[in-house]
Amino acid sequence: xxxxxxxxxxxxxxxxxxxxxxxxxxxxxxxxxxxxxxxxxxxxxxxxxxxxxxxxxxxxxxxxxxxxxxxxxxxxxxxxxxxxxxxxxxxxxxxxxxxxxxxxxxxxxxxxxxxxxxxxxxxxxxxxxxxxxxxxxxxxxxxxxxxxxxxxxxxxxxxxxxxxxxxxxxxxxxxxxxxxxxxxxxxxxxxxxxxxxxxxxxxxxxxxxxxx
Length: 212
Ligand code: ADP
Ligand code: MG
Prior knowledge:
70% helix; Serine Threonine Protein Phosphatase 5, Tetratricopeptide repeat
């Protein structure tokens, strides 16, 4: 099993993520209806379709190229609060992978840590605020642990995916303190935050792209 993520596998990751969000689009919008205004899934799917078009036929120059395309597409074309945040998130993955032919687990840990810092800074969101940060933070910590333990790529991404899913599920019990969800109070309880669920889909797609 390869211990680096080649551009072809990065593309598989990105396409797997786009497919997963598309399949979950209505669910994500429904989650945003419970905790915000109900535009999240639609906005994500629209932006990711543009990503798919932008990637079609392009030969990735570096491992991070697909993420650069995602970042620029989200920054130029996506709406809501989350659009620019996801744009900056993908851009951080693009930056770490800009000059390399393949991602190592350490690079993915670095990109995740950078992305966490960027989203936290731009959104003023900390752990426990009921945002995407609640899935990013545990994924980042899991990746750091995996790097320290010398884990393989697939194993490290599996632990990140599990941690992100756990973090996303945990947002069901949190009261929102950032964005629109902070206005709806207890009525959001019992449903997870859509941004956090999307981060969990992101790492699930990474796990799958590394696995076979
Ligand atoms: P809105 O419709 O409120 O403009 P979106 O529907 O585009 O926002 O995105 C909602 C998602 O964005 C939330 O599920 C949450 O994960 C994330 N989010 C919202 N506000 C913030 C913030 N200040 N910091 C980090 N993430 C945020
Ligand atoms: Mg919304």
